[in-house]
């Protein structure tokens, strides 16, 4: 009889531990789902509002940095970031790259890519003429 009670007690303790473990895992999973829900909601709001996502804004910033850095190689005494942002804003009709509407994203990227290609083409031509 004592063995049966001991075995039952062990089973009850194991079941209790398993229940606590599952509760902790479910709590962690709930936090993950909650975080994902917040993030999806934020993206949905941006899309509905016609705003760029953080990734799109970062991509524009990366292209602007490439152009400004290339321009600094040719004219090292100046910082060119503001000039590039101003030209981009004039192209898409905004005063801040984060205010670029979603529908103008492709136009903005194309404008920056063409600018960068023009810089690279100019550099390639110089090298060709020198060589």
Structure description:
- The chain has 131 residues and is mainly α.
- The protein has two domains: 1-49; 54-130, no CATH class.
- 82% of the residues lie in helices and 0% in strands.
- It has helices at 2-49, 54-74, 81-92, 105-130.
- Helix 2 packs across helix 3.
- The chain is elongated and about 100 Å long.
- The mean pLDDT is 87.
Give the arrangement of secondary structure elements:
Layout: H1 2-49, H2 54-74, H3 81-92, H4 105-130
Helix pairs in contact: 2-3, 2-4
Record keyword descriptors for this entry:
131 residues; mainly alpha; 2 domains; 0% strand
Briefly characterize the structure.
The protein is mainly alpha-helical and 131 residues long.
Q: Report the biggest beta sheet as strand number plus sense, adding barrel if it closes.
A: none
Please state the CA-atom Rg, rounded to the nearest Å: 29 Å
Flag low-confidence runs: none
Helix content: over 70%
If you average the pLDDT, what whole number results?
87
One letter per element, helices H and strands E, the order comes to HHHH
